[in-house]
Amino acid sequence: MFQISPNIRVAVGLEAWLDMFVDSSEFLTKYGLQPPDEPASLDVLDSQKDLLKVFAHYFQMGASSGRYMTNRSQFWTLVNMSSVLPNSKWKIGGNAVLMANRLVKEGCDVMLGASMTNGLKTQINDKVRVVGQNLSDSVDECHLLFEYKSGQQWGHYSAPRANRFRVHSNRDERIFYSLEKFREELPRYQPHLLIIAGLGMVDSIPVSATKTARMKALQTMLTTVSNETRVHFEMSSYAERSMLDFVIGSILPYTDSLGMNEQELAKLYTVLQHGNTTSVSESRPGLPTVLDQMRTVYQLLRHKSETVSGGRALSRIHTHTLAFQVILTDRNSTWKNTMTAAAKASLTSYRHVCQSDHINTTKAMILMGDAYSTSHNQEWSRKIRLKPDSPVSCWEEYGYEICVSPVLVCTEVVRTAGGGDNVSSAAIAVQI
After folding, report:
1. How far is Cα 150 from Cα 168, in angstroms, rounded to an integer?
2. Which residues pair with 93 in a beta bridge?
3. Where are the strands (E) in 94-154, listed by range?
């Protein structure tokens, strides 16, 4: 078994909140909510009617997504409606928190930048050092996660895979509330790796002087990070185009590593390559499609970083999907153990979704075929066959290595939310 040195220091930011997990079928049935005639991909939500339209849009695709609700009164009405359901559960949430907890579990020394109440802090692994404001006289932000299962029916709609839809109504005064304290501690902590995650919490919050200033403060922090510290950014699902443009122009040029799911990759690819966005990608994109998109994103982002003062050349991309894990690393970088990381990601995906530390093959399946092409470009694509005794395949291309691992897909889904955070953290932990 691969052992991670306990001396590996990882700083993770930013923020934390409460997640309420809601069985969407139970919610829709309880309140007699019928599907809309026409789904819609609205940028923000203002009413329950808006929620149903956008939920239907992503539900029929089986795609993970989320939206900001401008009407906080309506949002808290939804929270109260959800809280009385028998199967609703409160859990600590926030990409940074989930990644911090996983990294500690993997054996890393972790510092987390997050402001929260004492009650929420009790849900964090006690080995995580928390830096941020103590919200003793306030309440934690919360998000609603409407979960659905593969094959679930809602009127004439059917979900092709298990996933979830997130709703939040975060306030702009809480944006990166812990940033200054976190930034102040970084030079003393001297992390080997800095992870920035959770920018989805800012998505679609109305533009204000506060929001603009907080986003600029995050960019400024990244420009001051020591070259001895590598930087990883975990993507989120962004409905707001200006938010994605900010990430591309002000965050990604200062990162060494990038993690995302297949929908996030598709949207990033279309913006970088074509200048527009796609609202949703196919729920199960083929491996050649994902590989081609990763190659393009890798090259375009490396070129972009060259035009920015103090920019970092991207040297690692990890795309986590339902069916497979793909990790691309620069051969001249210090990232190591790429094959091990891909395998680790696959097993972590099963363990998280099934909520079990033990692999039970009777509750698993493999969606990848026996062989796959490495590109849609037939001039240089090649066919790779899966080997049962060595399922992770690695090969070298133009200055980088690619490793692909099939995922043991959990067939008895317990939780989908947080899957990407856990998978990404487990993989990068063995590569530092």
Report:
1. 24
2. 17
3. 109-113, 129-131, 142-148, 153-154
Note if the bond before 145 is cis, omega within 30 degrees.
no
DSSP 43-62: SEE-SHHHHHHHHHHHHTTT
Q: Which residues, 6 or more positions from 170, have their beta carbon under 8 angstroms from its beta carbon?
A: 17, 68, 141, 201, 202, 205
Here the tokens at position 173 are: 């005064």
Residues near 194 by beta carbon (within 8 Å), at least 6 away in sequence = 10, 11, 12, 13, 186, 225, 229, 230, 231, 232
b or e along 352-365 (b: 16 or more beta carbons within 10 Å of the residue's beta carbon)? bbbeeeeeeeebbe
CA distance 157 to 272: 32
Task: Determine what percent of the chain is predicted with pLDDT higher than 70.
Answer: 97
Q: Residues with Cβ < 8 Å from 181, sequence gap 6 or more?
A: 113, 131, 132, 133
Decide if pLDDT at 278 tops 70. Answer: no
Q: Where are the beta strands (DSSP E) in 230-276?
A: 230-234, 257-261
350: which strand partners?
none
Our CA dihedral for 57, 62, 66, 70, rounded to 10 degrees, sits at: 20
Residue type, 346: S
CA dihedral 224, 93, 40, 80 (to 10 degrees): -140
Distance CA 235, CA 252 (A): 10
Per-residue model confidence as pLDDT tens digits over 85-131:
999 999 998 899 999 999 999 999 999 999 888 888 888 999 999 99
Q: Is 85 exposed, middle or buried (0-12, 13-18, 19+ CB in 10 A)?
A: middle
Tell me the pTM.
0.92
- Separation of alpha carbons 14 and 195, rounded Å: 9
Q: 21 near 145, Cβ under 8 Å?
A: yes
